[in-house]
Amino acid sequence: MNYLLKKHTIAFFILFLFISNFFISCKSQKEFVSLETTRNKAITPTKKVKNIILLVGDGMGLSQVSASQFYNKNASNFNRFPVIGLIKTSSSSDLITDSAASATAFASGIKTYNGALGVNTDSLAVKTIVEEISKIGISTGIISTSSIVHATPAAFYTHTKKRSMYEDIAAQLVSSDIDFFAGGGINYFNDRKDKRDLILELEKNGFSIDLEMLPNTTKPTVSKKQGYLLAPDAMPKMVDGRGDFLSNATHLAIESLSTNEEGFFLMVEGSQIDWGGHDNDAAYLISELIDFDNTIGVALDFAKLNGETLVIVTADHETGGFTLAEDNGDYNKIKPVFSTGGHSATMIPVFAKGPNSEDFGGIYENTAIYNKMKTLFFENNNN
Ligand SMILES: [Zn+2]
What we know:
The chain is built from 12 helices and 14 strands. With 383 residues, the protein is of the alpha/beta class. The chain folds into 2 domains: 1-44; 48-382, Alkaline Phosphatase, subunit A (3-Layer(aba) Sandwich), CATH 3.40.720. It has a 10-stranded mixed sheet, with helices on both faces. The protein has a two-stranded antiparallel sheet with strand order 9-12. β10 (323-327) and β11 (330-337) form a beta hairpin. The longest helix has 42 residues, at 2-43. The model is unreliable at 15-45 (pLDDT under 50). Residues 59, 99, 274, 278, 319, 343 line the site of zinc ion. The site of zinc ion has 6 residues, from α10.
């Protein structure tokens, strides 16, 4: 009896082991499958990034962005971004960056010294994103409300030890990979110490150049490269009647560059938000900020229809130590005030919308903007 019972117990125990093992293996199989599915989901982006529009509000910190909430009669386009991050902007030489070092971080992914454009701390040229993506057939454009040889646009096509070498920078635009540009700065192209006529040289290089105005039509000639230099130096201020230049140029650039099936990169700078900050002139700053806000709307409207365009909005640094303070104890009234005539070290917001926009959340160095953009362009190209 005892022996038989023991035998049965052993047999039952073996059967139990077998069955339970079967269930365990089924469960782990299932877990494995579901993990794989999740992983596949995580690495398969919903849509690829074909185009990137990077909008840089020079000198635009969080208080400047906040001004769009109070002073733009229309709803601010900043409200349309689902992803927000913050960048740290110190340069290699200074805790507080200038536009040149910061734009070089965006364009080439390196920290360099204040005043440097497209060169490293040893003043040696480093590749720009424009040079890299042009090689894989992507079109590129730059737009600014300063002269086109000013620090932020220049960092995307030039390599110079000093940002003030404007005539040298203009000459480098002629031999660059840029396909579309719009801004001011005629003097650096046709009123030069070396007597070169860079307007002619640009035309010889296949550019259609206009020194008067943007075309009225929104359907540009698609085959030609286009350049618009519409002021002797910087473009006029908004308060002096610049009008919708920035929005219209952005619209035109998008129409033109998006004809390339390989994709495009467009950098748009609201240059004079910075100058309003330097002047401690709130009306100047806010009018430039609202113009920039409206231009963001043009980029977002295109991206919404296109579906393969990532829009990134950020700044190189904050200018003016600008803040929206209460007015002598009246908490229902805003008094814009400044704490400096220079730049400040505050972290700068980054707004992103479109495929892979989630990559731009978090706190990181300004050089990461370049790394993230480059990865997205080259991932798309390899697939
Ligand atoms: Zn500045």
